[in-house]
Design goal:
single chain; 307 residues; alpha/beta; Alkaline Phosphatase, subunit A; two-stranded parallel ribbon; 14 helices
């Protein structure tokens, strides 16, 4: 059987919160595709580990026995190294990685391991010229996952890749490239079209990573209506993706680094569990003994046959 293609979709800052329609968008969103992945249930605190004919929904530990509110830099570093980074550095830390986290990522991470085993991998988010200028000037610190990608010698994609259809914008549709970044001719997709494009891009390599920070930003700033709108857009993306996806040839993983969006009105991260969803025939192999974000990288390597 050929090695499966793996697509990891990272939604920054979504957790499993209370069934409270006053503060939790997940308590009210119209998201039939997302709910189907959890056996018809909403993604809430009391939603248990659930298996359907196509997916496994897993409430996932993002705290790792370290007190305090999980943060982006240490959480993302844990995802891409399989190490308990907060325990190693003595705290949850973020949003951008400090020197100890950067050192851990430089030592080894999922992308470096894949490249070392001659596997193909990519982060398919595009970045505008200002992003690269900020890094070159030292005014911008890359995120943990960006450091992981760059440390493996892999490129970060540009506006050229986005125009060529080789990248997916963090808002899925690309409207932000026109409205906020000043690219009036940037491609714009429906959410369903973006989902189909995700599948097409994932078939091109062994491991494909997509990240959106918008969920975390709305979690910090609101408003509630934007949170509902964005998650309902993601539901439509997943409808397009799942309609195109071949379960016997690939694995989709959806996860997050910490809670935030599910507690509107509190600008801080939450200590809630986060959702992990695994879709495809290899889901049981990936999800074996899966309980925390430390299990993401080991699971991916196991499915790809890398010890």
């Amino acid at each position: 059987m050929p090695t499966p293609h793996i697509l990891l979709i990272f939604l920054d800052g979504i957790g499993l919160g209370d069934d409270d329609p006053a503060i939790n968008p997940f308590a009210v969103i119209n998201a039939p595709t997302l709910h189907s992945l959890a056996g018809g249930r909403r993604w809430l605190r009391d939603t248990p580990r659930t298996e359907t004919k196509r997916a496994i929904f897993i409430p996932t530990d993002a705290q790792f026995g370290v007190s305090g509110r999980p943060q982006s830099a240490s959480g993302q570093a844990t995802i891409f190294t399989g190490r308990n980074v907060p325990a190693e550095i003595g705290e949850h830390y973020g949003p951008k990685p400090n020197p100890p986290i950067r050192e851990i990522l430089q030592q080894d991470n999922l992308f470096k391991t894949l490249v070392a085993h001659n596997r193909t991998a990519a982060l398919i988010n595009p970045y505008p010229p200002g992003f690269f200028k900020g890094i070159e000037s030292g005014k911008r610190i890359p995120s943990s996952y960006q450091i992981a990608v760059m440390s493996a010698g892999l490129p970060l994609l540009t506006e050229r890749h986005y125009h060529a259809g080789e990248a997916i914008a963090p808002d899925w549709t690309g409207e932000g490239w026109r409205e906020y970044l000043g690219y009036p001719d940037a491609p714009v997709y429906t959410p369903e079209e973006a989902g189909v494009r995700l599948a097409e891009l994932a078939w091109q390599r062994d491991f494909t990573f997509f990240s959106t920070w918008i969920t975390d930003e709305i979690g910090h700033r609101g408003p509630f209506e934007d949170a509902v709108k964005f998650m309902e857009r993601f539901d439509r993306v997943m409808a397009g993706l799942l309609g195109k996806w071949l379960d016997d040839e690939g694995l989709i993983i959806i996860t997050s680094d910490h809670g935030n969006l599910e507690v509107q009105g509190d600008r801080r991260h939450s200590e809630n569990l986060v959702p992990t969803v695994v879709i495809g025939e290899k889901r049981h192999e990936f999800a074996e003994n899966f309980t925390s974000l430390m299990d993401i990288t080991p699971g991916i390597l196991r499915v790809l046959g890398i010890s």
